Amino acid sequence: MSSDLQGYICAGTAVLFFGTNFVPVKKFDSGDGMFFQLCMCLGIFLMGLIVQAARGWPEFQPFAMAGGALWCTGNVMAVPVIQSVGMSLGLLVWGATNMLSGWASGKFGLFGLHSDDIDDPVLNYVGVSLALVSLGLTILVEPTDAASAGPDDAGHAIPEPTGSISLGKPLLESVADDLEEGGPGVESSEAVSAAPSSSAGTWVSRLGPRRARLAGVCMAVVMGCFFGFSFDPAQYLMDNRYDDDDGGRVDPLDYVFSHLCGIFASSCFYYALYVASCGGFSNTWKDAALVGPAMLSGVMWAIAQVCWFVANGALGFSIAFPLITSGPGLVAALVGIVLFGEIQGAKNFAVLGLAFAFTVSANVCIVMSR
Length: 370
Hints:
By secondary structure, the chain is mostly helical. Helices cover 61% and strands 0% of the residues. The chain has helices at residues 3-20, 34-54, 65-76, 78-85, 87-108, 121-139, 176-182, 209-228, 232-240, 256-277, 291-315, 317-325, 328-338, 346-369.
């Protein structure tokens, strides 16, 4: 199998799993999201162990953990961003920034990376622009039952991507709908700095609407950059730290475990802060029934992330990033239509059809640009 074909297959697999990894927790109450993200990150870590064992236990790369820490830090910022600007605008800003920052890392060789060799840069620019339009259109689709969804459905109606859920896909989306309803003045728990039972407003609510919106947009930009740059530490090692015994060959899979360890270690750190802010573990939200589904969700997310590593290595960031970040929203929407009947109405279907057309056009341009 050629390297390019392997890259495209992995990109498609990543899109599929990023678009469906929240299905296992669809019917479970995720509470304030922190216990859920810890269990999900445990599943991510276990998948990393499997990859590491399959690769014959290659050398651990501590620097690659920095990418996982970046992703997890950006993920934790999802809650205040949604409190400040709402789910739709937050997703649009961090999703677009995620795509552009990852694409730019490879296109221009940022942070010491090797720049990608693109045969037709103009066509690549056109493809990225169309992918951004597709992302914006996908976010406009509204679940039919969004207004009446109960606690078990909060935040899972259309599990948007996001590369980092990576594609920046936020792990804390379980609180998205509740936070969006309250807006800047929401009287809800903040994932790290306040206990779930606290009745006091969050720091976002004390900023006022204008300042909260500005802070939210700025945080969403930073969050998207963290998602987009999360592959850079591992890629820097691959580009600049060769094993002479291997003739310069580097396999991206040898860096996956280190990257995923960074996610799990950071998740444990933020959860410890959360527990401390709640006054002890007994005061935190938790549900044993959520452990299995959350871990399965993490395994599915990790499979997508592993495929993204392979796609990056085979195709380069400037090809893999727009391909992978533009597709999961459509997959998630199709899942919502077929399995849960959440998306109905001519307007929604028209928007989805238009988004699909833009996505196909973007992918054709991006593939041809290589």
